[in-house]
């Protein structure tokens, strides 16, 4: 069964890596099973990939990019990448001709989309008739919206700043750590305020948000390994499962158990 899944996605890759798409904007919708694999490939077109549910992992130069809603992944033209769906995933891919990519980021990254983008994608999925005036107009609205979307280099960004990198490495190895921001600042001999500003500047988010994203990422791996929610909560630094479940659902829009069940779809 696994080989059939992989072969199916390879056939899909060959179809959409060529230059046979006739329109400068083209959208495709797919429902793929858990543990489906996208082998290394590239497209002549830019791609915006958005998951309606589930989480896609795309690997570029040994860096993993995750796309939990409402984040979408932007891939410039001719970029080699591979992918893995740990869960079943329903997603849309907007293909953008290279001539229309000038106003979009020149490097891969995460785009924080507006509610309008989500609504248009859902509408197009529910009304799949292509090449109508309305359809093409909505694709151009999507392109306009993506040009103004907030760009995030990664769902879990990193930095080369020596002091902040030291803190991030520590938190990555100790996800259950509950140190206050002031205590973390003491580790690098700085103030809480300075560390907060440094994190915002280097990561594009607060250190607290980065820590929660880290917990979610690690939790997804532990859920796929079959660990109990109670044990994952403790490993993530929570005193009880309820607090952990609330945090996970806030970020993923599904509970840990729902995430685990989606692995077996």
TrEMBL record:
It comes from the Bacteria. SUPFAM superfamilies: Homeodomain-like (SSF46689), RmlC-like cupins (SSF51182). This is AraC family transcriptional regulator. Residues 165-262 form the HTH araC/xylS-type domain. Keywords: DNA-binding, Repressor, Transcription, Transcription regulation. GO terms for molecular function: DNA-binding transcription factor activity; sequence-specific DNA binding. The lineage of its organism: Bacteria, Pseudomonadati, Pseudomonadota, Gammaproteobacteria, Moraxellales.
């Amino acid at each position: 069964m696994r080989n059939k899944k992989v072969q199916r996605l390879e056939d899909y890759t060959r179809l959409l890596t060529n230059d046979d798409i006739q329109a400068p904007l083209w959208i495709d919708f797919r429902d793929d099973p858990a543990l489906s694999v996208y082998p290394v490939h590239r497209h002549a077109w830019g791609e915006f990939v958005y998951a309606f549910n589930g989480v896609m992992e795309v690997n570029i130069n040994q860096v993993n990019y995750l796309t939990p809603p409402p984040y979408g992944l932007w891939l410039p033209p001719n970029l080699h990448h591979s992918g893995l769906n740990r869960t079943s995933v329903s997603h849309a891919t907007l293909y953008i001709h290279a001539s229309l990519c000038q106003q979009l980021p020149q490097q891969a990254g995460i785009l924080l989309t507006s509610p309008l983008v989500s609504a248009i994608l859902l509408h197009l999925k529910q009304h799949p008739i292509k090449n109508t005036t309305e359809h093409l107009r909505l694709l151009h609205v999507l392109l306009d919206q993506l040009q103004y979307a907030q760009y995030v280099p990664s769902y879990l960004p990193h930095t080369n700043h020596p002091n902040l990198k030291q803190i991030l490495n520590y938190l990555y190895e100790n996800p259950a750590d509950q140190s206050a921001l002031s205590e973390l600042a003491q580790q690098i001999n700085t103030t809480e305020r300075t560390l907060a500003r440094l994190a915002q500047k280097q990561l594009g988010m607060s250190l607290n948000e980065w820590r929660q994203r880290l917990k979610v990422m690690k939790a997804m791996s532990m859920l796929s390994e079959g660990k109990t929610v109670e044990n994952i909560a403790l490993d993530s630094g929570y005193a009880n499962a309820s607090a952990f479940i609330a945090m996970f659902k806030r970020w993923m829009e599904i509970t840990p158990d729902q995430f685990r069940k989606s692995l077996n779809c």
